[in-house]
Amino acid sequence: MREEDSNWFSRWEEELPSPDELIPLSQSLITPDLALAFDIRNPNHSPLHHPPPSSALHPPPPPPPQSSFADFAADSGDLGSEAAGDEPARTLKRPRLVWTPQLHKRFVDAVAHLGIKNAVPKTIMQLMSVDGLTRENVASHLQKYRLYLKRMQGLSGGANGGSGGAGLGPSSDPATDHLFASSPVPPHFLHPGRANSDHFLPFVPVPALQHHQQQQMVAAAVGHPHLQSQYHRPQMGHYGSSPNSQFEHPFLGRQTQQPMHRTGGTPVHNQAPNSYLEDLESANGNGGRKVLTLFPTGND
DNA sequence: CCCCCAATAT
DNA sequence: AATATTGGGG
Fold first, then answer.
1. Which nucleotide is nearest to A291 (CA to C1')?
2. What is the average per-residue pLDDT within A179-193?
3. How far is CA A92 from the centre of its chain?
4. CB neighbours of residue A138 within 10 Å
5. In the structure, what pLDDT confidence band is assigned to residue A184 with cuts at 50, 70 and 90?
6. Nearest Cα to A88, choosing from A224, A191, A219, A180?
7. Is the CB of A141 under 7 A from strand C?
8. Which bases of chain B are under 7 A from a protein CB atom?
9. Contact, A267 vs A14, CB < 8 A?
10. Residues having Cβ less than 7 A from any atom in strand B
11. Closest nucleotide to A287's CA, by C1' atom?
């Protein structure tokens, strides 16, 4: 057992959104097929602002009254190809994941805590424990993230590049990566020559740094009944900080496991019985794209 | 099987 | 533009 575990887990607890803060997306209760078929999402661009839990409850986010159909028509093109009107149940395509800053944050945390070495897609995914997240999602994101880190390193010290700016530190290149820029990149990520298991932050508890960003997690509204992220707390240790445990969904249950060594065998202890997840995972085949709607908290 | 990365595809 | 998918190599 590593004491560190309790450490960072504790930290995590703080960040964990209370169940109250989790905002269920509208379609959560709709039949997946239905949701998919109708493509319930914001056609335009404005993601529903899920107002923070300021006012207690929000009614079902009801917004886009119109255009659904337009979209539906547009993207249902593919859906129709496979007997969509009849027995769609299987072969559902999963919506594209949207990496909100919050989600990315969790990703970075996971990577940071795992240590670069153990941070491989599967592990990261497991640690993040966000429902609906697949290994591919993570792999793809990780790939991009690595490129980002590389860029940062390359440009950080000396010469400038010419990209307009010249000598600025880690060049904040243009639109290269807004998402990545929004999360603090743990130092160790940047230098390769370091011990592998360094994760605990010295003490840089982010003193007075920005605190504005409430950490709300993502609620994934995939085409499935209850797609919300759920983090589970480690059963070990003591996590009594969050008294909100009225969260009991009989359905999802992702359990966490601890990091293991990725050498040879990877005895991860498993994931819970997410039948729904498996369904989603295996589902695939035709094109109908939907968007995983993790809500962006209008705070960017 | 899983990982990684580059190139494509959507 | 942001993700997903594919393909080749380890």
1. C3
2. 79
3. 20
4. 26
5. confident
6. A224
7. yes
8. 2-7, 10
9. no
10. A 120-123, 135, 139, 142-143, 146-147, 262, 287, 289
11. B10
d(Cα A224, Cα A219) in Å, to the nearest integer?
Answer: 12
Query: Can you tell me the mean pLDDT for A91-109?
Result: 90
Confidence bin at A209 (pLDDT 50/70/90): very low
A252 or A136, greater pLDDT? A136
Residue A123 pLDDT: 96
Distance of C1' in C5 from CA in A167, Å: 37
Q: Is the CB of A136 under 7 A from strand C?
A: yes
- Distance of C1' in B4 from CA in A164, Å: 31
Q: Which nucleotides of C are covered by protein (CB under 7 A)?
A: 1-6
Contact A285, A39 (CB under 8 A): no
Gap between the Cα atoms of A122 and A138, Å rounded: 8
Instruction: Identify the pLDDT of residue A116.
Output: 83
The distance (Å) linking the CA of A274 with the C1' of B8 is 32
| Token pair belonging to A155 | 């440009």
Q: Which two tokens stand for residue A287?
A: 């094109």
Q: Which of A16, A5, A2, A3 is nearest to A241 (CA)?
A: A16
- Treating both helix axes as pointing N-terminal to C-terminal, what angle do A101-114 and A135-155 enclose, rounded to 10 degrees? 80
Give dist(CA A63, CA A212) in Å, integer. 27
State residue A94's pLDDT score. 85
Which DSSP string corresponds to A203-270?
S---SSS-------------SSTT--------SSS---S--------SS-----------BSB-----
